[in-house]
Structures are given as structure tokens and as C-alpha cells.
Amino acid sequence: MSTVSAWTDIPASLDGVKLFHRMRAGDQPLLMVHGVGPGTTGRANFGPLLDRLPARFALHLIDLAGFGASGRRTAQPFFDVRFWLRQINLAIDHIMTRHGAAPMLIGNSVGGALVLKAAADRAEIERVLAIGAPVGPPATPELRRFWTAPSDAASLAEAMRPMTGPAADPDPSLVRERLQVFQSADYGTYFNAMLAEPDRCLEAVALTPQEASGLRARVALLHGREDRACPVSHTLNTLLPRLPGADLTLFGGCGHNLIAERTEAVLVTIARLAEENNPQ
After folding, report:
1. What is the mean pLDDT of residues 251-272?
2. Bridge partner residues of 14 (DSSP)
3. Closest CA to 217 of 102, 67, 64
């Protein structure tokens, strides 16, 4: 039986911003890009998957600039899609040098939109999994609440509740973990400045028709039917027509936190995509 390798940190920086990139060794590389929210990190988003993904996968986790262990931009825009795409491309370049192959891209929420845009610009990318990806404005009230710096644990729990299908109370330990970053005196100000214009943010991260026309990768989309932050109707009406070759799987009773709510289904989808031969 194969054993799972330890995680190692990969030094990276861009325009003077220190970037977090952590790798678990393996043969088939996966690059995982998290979403945008209070206390979000690569490990926070993809945690339910990490210990269950087989040892054959080389897992690459990044924290987008402004989140987790990565540094912050010092000037606006803090919600900087171009910078984040450069960060993703830097990680792809490193992975291709290390593994001799392009990674499958897996993105959650805003990360899902980012990996679609990244794949549209990289012909080497053959497989993309986008989970609960936003497709443009308008921002829902639930997303606006989630994209506001919490004042305390109660306000964060209230913002997190609609992220699941049944709008369940979040685990108090998860609330405490995500609230920690806001103990820094100025992070709440930074977070609110980053997300001050939610509609503009969603417009910036949306996959354009021109980008979609150049996307040659095999694309799988996963979405919760009860997603209140990024409604599936937006995906059906806007994104899917732009990606006629993509598969969309909907999960009943599931919200925006699909990785935690449907962990096994996400694992199955990753395995299926990885096993496809020459999907282009």
C-alpha cells in the first residue's frame, strides 16, 4: 500500500509579495485554488479532500495574495484578478518544471472562475474542475454579507449559515479558525476594501465569451442547487452556453460549501477526470 507523503513549502513571490505554495509529492499534479471569503485559505477550502485523495496525486495548494499565509498587495486593487492569474501561472510553471506535466486545475467559488480563466490562456491545461464558480453580477445579499468583514463570531456564523444547503449552524471551531485573521488590527479594513464593490469583483472574475472560445480543456462543473451565494441559475443561463463541451453536475439540497457537503462526489469527479486519456 502506498503511503501519503508529507507536505513541503515551495518558496514563491511576485512583485515583492510573498506567496504561499505547499506541495504533497505524487505523480499526477493537481493545483487547487480556493475561493474568497473571511478566513479562506487553500487548506480551509479543500481540507475535506486532502487526506482522502490517493497518494498518486501530487497536491499543490496555494493561498491567493491577501489570504492565509500569502502576503498582501500594498495598493488597490486588492481584488486583483490579473495578479491572481499571474500567481496561478507561476504555480503552473513550477509544477510543469517539477513534474514534466501540466496540472489538473481545481477551483472553488472565485477560485473556480479563476482556473477557468487560467486554462483559457494555457493550452497545456487539459482538465479543469470548477466548483460553485461565480459567473458575474449581480451579487446576491448572501454573498454581500459573506464578503463583509465580521465584527465577531456571531456575525461570522450568520454569514456562513446560508453557505450550506440547509442553512445549518457552522461548527464553532471553524468559526473561530476563520475569525482569527480578523484579530489583526487592520485586516478587516483590508478585507472590506478588497470587496467594497461586489458587482465589480464578480464582473472582473467572470469568464468572458472570448476566453471561453479559446478554452480547449476538458471542463467539469459542480454546483449546489441551493447555492445562495452563486445561484445555479446564473451558471445555467450564462456560463454553460459559453462552454458547450462542459459537464455540469447539480447536487440537490446542497449550497455553496459543496466540498464539505458532497465530499465523496467531488473525490469521484477528480478521479474520473484524472483517468481520462488525452481529453483535448
Report:
1. 96
2. 17
3. 102
Task: Using pLDDT thresholds of 50, 70 and 90, give the confidence band for residue 26.
Answer: very high
* 219: three-class secondary structure by DSSP: strand
Q: What is the mean pLDDT of the chain?
A: 94
Are 162 and 142 within 8 A, CB to CB?
yes
Structural domains of the chain sorted by starting position, each given as residue range(s) with its CATH number in brackets: 7-275 (3.40.50.1820)
Let me know: does 230 contact 109? Beta carbons within 8 Å. yes
Tell me how far apart the alpha carbons of residues 240 and 40 are, in angstroms, rounded to a whole number: 27
Instruction: Give CA angle at 240 (237, 244), nearest 5°.
Output: 135
**4 pLDDT tier (thresholds 50, 70, 90):** low
- The per-residue pLDDT for range 206-247, each reduced to its tens digit, is 999 999 999 999 999 999 999 999 999 999 999 999 999 999
Cβ atoms within 10 Å of 245's Cβ, excluding its own: 10
Q: Distance between CA 146 and CA 230 in Å, rounded?
A: 12
Q: How far apart are the first and last CA of the chain?
A: 32
The partner residues of 129 in beta bridges, in order of sequence, read 106, 220
Q: Tell whether omega for the bond before 138 is within 30 degrees of 0, i.e. cis.
A: yes
The overall pTM is greater than 0.85: yes
